[in-house]
């Protein structure tokens, strides 16, 4: 895996990150740190990447468990250290999993497997942060559109 991060110019604190898979993401700093608040902060990117990593795992595990999953959302809330380095000290993941007749024990199992075995990002962050999670299941009563 490879990426390049490039500062966009002499004024401001905007950076463009280019991934090895060919995608670009803009990051910026807070106005009090020289940024212009045009894009997410780098540490927000760490948090959202972790959310993507674990949500991916949960969906994949529930599909393999033959669950009728139709949606997965994870909200992450965090706290950081007061002094440098301002590492994450607490991160809470709240999953909202939507589907039909989802079994709570399988949803919980998928979340636990992600955090304990598969999600590299949350396993790394666990070195400095207390990781907790919760979940809710929303039963999706809507019919799926017919396949064409």
UniProtKB/TrEMBL annotation:
Coiled-coil ranges per UniProt: none
Pfam families: OsmC (PF02566)
Xref: NCBIfam families: PRK10738.1 (NF008009)
Superkingdom per UniProt: Bacteria
InterPro entries recorded: KH_dom-like_a/b, OsmC/Ohr_fam, OsmC/Ohrsf
Protein name: OsmC family protein
Organism of provenance: Glaciimonas soli
């Amino acid at each position: 895996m490879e990426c390049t991060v490039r500062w966009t110019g002499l004024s401001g604190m905007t950076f463009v990150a280019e991934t090895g898979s060919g995608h670009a993401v803009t990051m910026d700093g807070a106005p009090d740190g020289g940024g212009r608040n045009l894009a997410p902060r780098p540490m927000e990117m760490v948090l959202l990447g972790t959310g993507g990593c674990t949500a991916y795992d949960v969906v994949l595990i529930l599909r393999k468990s033959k669950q009728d999953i139709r949606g997965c959302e994870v909200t992450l809330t965090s706290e950081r250290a007061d002094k440098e380095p301002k590492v994450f000290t607490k991160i809470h993941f709240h999953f909202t999993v939507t589907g039909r007749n989802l079994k709570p024990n399988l949803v919980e199992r998928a979340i636990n497997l992600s955090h304990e075995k598969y999600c590299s990002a949350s396993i790394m962050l666990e070195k400095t942060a207390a990781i907790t999670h919760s979940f809710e299941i929303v039963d999706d009563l809507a019919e799926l559109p017919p396949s064409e």
